[in-house]
Structure formats: C-alpha cells, structure tokens
Write a structure and sequence with these properties.
heterodimer; A: 135 residues; mainly alpha; 3 helices; B: 209 residues; flat
Chain lengths: 135, 209
C-alpha cells in the first residue's frame, strides 16, 4: 500500500524546523540552568544537615560564633583574597562594558560611514545579549 | 566542642568554599567566556570589514554578506552556545536536508566560487577561525564539561607523556644494556661455540663414541 504523504511547503518546513530548533534550545538552556541551581540546592541540603549537627541545644547565634571562632587567620586571609578577586573582577567587567559602550558606538558610526548597509549583531551598546533575545 | 560538631564545622566551611567556587564558575566564569567569545568574533568581523574597506572584496558581495551575517548570528546567540544546545540541535538538523531547507551551504559555496583564489582562501580561513572559537567556547564555556572533561584529559595527557617517557627510558636502557652485554657476552659466545663444537659427551663426562 502506497504511503500517503502530505505535501509540505518550503515555508512550512522552514517554520517547523525553526520551531524545533527553538524548542531544543529552550530545553538545553533549561538543562544548563537546572545543573547550575541543582548544585546550590544540594549544597543547601548538606549545609542544613551540618547546621543540624552543630545545633544541638545551642541557638543560631552560638552556631555562628562557633563557626566564626573556628576560622583561622590564614583561612580568613584566603577568603579575603578570594572575595577581593571576585570584587575586582566584577568592577573590571563593569568598566570594560562601559568602555565597550563608549568606543563601540564610535566604531559603528565610522563603519556605517564606509558601509551604509552594514549589518549588526543586535547586541546592546554595551555588548551584552539583547533583552529581546533572552529565552 | 564535640568531635561531631568539629566535623560539622569543617564540613560547613568546605561547603561554603565549594559553593563560592561554583558561583564563580557557573556565573562569573561563564559570563567571562561569553564575552571572550564575542570579543574574538568581533575581532574576526573587524578583520573581514577591513578586507572590504581595502577594496579586496565588495561590501555587497554575497560571500562577504554571508560570512558577516553568520558572525552576527554567533555574536547574537553566544549566550546560548553550549554542548547541550549543540547536541540537541545537530540531532534535529541531521534529520533535515540542510542544503534544501536553509540553502546556507549551497549559497556559501556559490558565493565563494565567484571570488579570486586569494580572497576565497582568506574567507575560508576566517570561517575556520570562527569555528575554532566556537569549539573553544563549547569546551571551555561549560563549567560542567570542564569539570567532567579537563581532569580525565589531564590524566590521559600525563599518562601519554608518562608512557612515552617510561618507554623511551626503557628503550634507551635496553639499548645501553644490550651494547654492554654484547661486549660482555663475547667470551661467553666463544665458550658456547667451543662447547657446541665438542663431540657428544658420555654420561661420565667423556666424549661419546
């Protein structure tokens, strides 16, 4: 028996494919986000059990004092160093985005002077993902 | 403080440290990799623009437009590029006849064929470099993949280096030993030859027959 096939227009096939790709992208992004937050949830769970073991008959303030009193100077210095690095990185990034904004606009303007039909990446002036493109 | 509480304190401190590391890796590092990828593709796009500015290719040439638009696409959706997206999308695309649906491949080939060989080579090289950046983004842009892939790769590399070093050392040791043994074994060879050339011995040590 010959198999009946429904003729599908090119435009329809293209639309279907785009939709399928979009769905898969959403799925992949969801998986990626799940991995990110699953770790934090697992860490919170184990953290909660650590606090339970620490708690006993003590108050939350006692636990905090115990936790802090057990940290040595060398460890505190390492924490400070790590946190300082993150803070420095964050500020550097902010500065770079500002520089992107100021220089990028100028580059676009100059390039448009040479090629008026210049196509764009549709990113924000700071070089970040366009809010409209967020899933 | 009881031993259990001490252990719990250490576990809590370790957990805070690991969580902090994860936050840096999953948010800050990922964001940095996306920016780095964009920066490098922007540089490649600027290189392409410079080719057109110097008059090596027209701004409205289909090959120029194709490559620029593709680069724009990578720049625009750089935040979505990861191994999971690549895997799922390529699985879907394999079922499609890509050339007929999007005609990208045919159009790119057709546009490229109208260029002079030097320019064709230049555009192909730019496209390959974009792909190389994409590959790096896929591998180094995913913290999970890095955790899963980098340690086994390092171990594999160390094993490979170790094997080469060990086998090289063993080979040179064998060659040196063989050379020394060659010299030392000459008298033994001579003795063996003499013994071999002796007539057959009887049970009491006398030549037989």
């Amino acid at each position: 028996m010959a198999q009946k096939t429904r003729p599908v227009s090119d435009a329809q096939a293209d639309r279907d494919l785009r939709l399928a790709i979009h769905n898969r992208t959403v799925l992949a992004q969801s998986f990626s986000q799940f991995c990110k937050y699953a770790f934090l949830i697992a860490a919170s769970y184990y953290g909660y059990h650590c606090v339970l073991a620490l708690a006993g008959k003590n108050t939350a303030a006692d636990i905090g004092i115990k936790f802090l009193s057990d940290i040595r100077i060398s460890e505190a210095a390492a924490w400070l160093f790590g946190a300082g690095g993150v803070l420095y990185g964050t500020r550097e990034r902010r500065l770079r985005l500002k520089v992107n904004e100021s220089l990028g606009a100028r580059v676009s303007e100059l390039e448009e002077g040479i090629d008026p039909a210049r196509s764009s990446s549709k990113l924000t002036p700071r070089g970040e993902t366009n809010p409209q493109d967020h899933i | 403080m009881t031993p259990l509480q001490q252990s719990a304190t250490i576990a809590l401190q370790t957990l805070v440290g690991i969580t902090g590391g994860w936050l840096v890796l999953a948010w800050y590092y990922r964001s940095y990799r996306i920016d780095l990828f964009r920066h490098r593709v922007f540089n490649l796009r600027a290189e392409l623009f410079d080719c057109a500015r110097r008059g090596e290719i027209a701004f409205d040439h289909p090959a120029y437009l194709h490559l620029r638009i593709t680069m724009n696409g990578f720049l625009r959706f750089a935040d979505r590029i990861n191994l999971a997206t690549m895997f799922l999308c390529s699985m879907r695309l394999q079922r499609e006849q890509l050339g007929e649906t999007w005609e990208w491949v045919h159009a790119w080939d057709a546009a490229r064929s109208t260029l002079e060989p030097a320019m064709r080579e230049k555009l192909t090289s730019l496209k390959s470099r974009v792909h190389f950046e994409l590959f790096k983004q896929l591998v180094f842009g995913s913290p999970v993949l890095m955790i899963l892939l980098i340690p086994p790769l390092c171990v594999g590399l160390l094993q490979l280096i170790g094997k080469r070093v060990v086998s090289g050392f063993a080979r040179s040791l064998y060659v040196a030993t063989e050379r020394q043994f060659e010299r030392a074994s000459v008298p033994i060879d001579g003795l063996a030859y003499r013994i071999g050339s002796l007539p057959a011995m009887s049970g009491r040590g006398y030549p037989r027959g």
